[in-house]
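Exercise 4. Each item below gives a protein and its sequence. For each, produce the structure-token representation.

Item: Bacteriohemerythrin (Clostridium chromiireducens).
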Amino acid sequence: MVKWKSDYEIGVSLIDEQHKKLFEIANSAYELLRNDFYVDKYDKIIEILSELKDYTVFHFKSEEEYMLSIGYKRFFSHKVEHENFINEINSINLAEIDENQDESVKDLLGFVVDWIDKHILDQDKLIIVQ
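Answer:
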């Protein structure tokens, strides 16, 4: 399970709430991984992946608009990180997911949790200290 902690708060309530939603999506993947009742998890994995894609596009747009509104100096490098995340998600091989579903969920969960953790703590925190 992926837990939100106060260390992730950057102090901008809109962004903090959106980050919490990313944790919820990651927790959906974690719960799916633990669920032994689904013999075939492919459709559920695709649903989570789709929600992750849609929500990150929404969140990144919102975060980028905020950064522009405050004249954030590292906007372009931050935007590149967002684009790299989206590209990584878009490059996931769906056939591979179908072949090894639990391993795919573990990989997806690991990638998302690692990225969220590092990005929020290392990059998003810089937004408020500029």
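Check: The chain has five helices and no strands.
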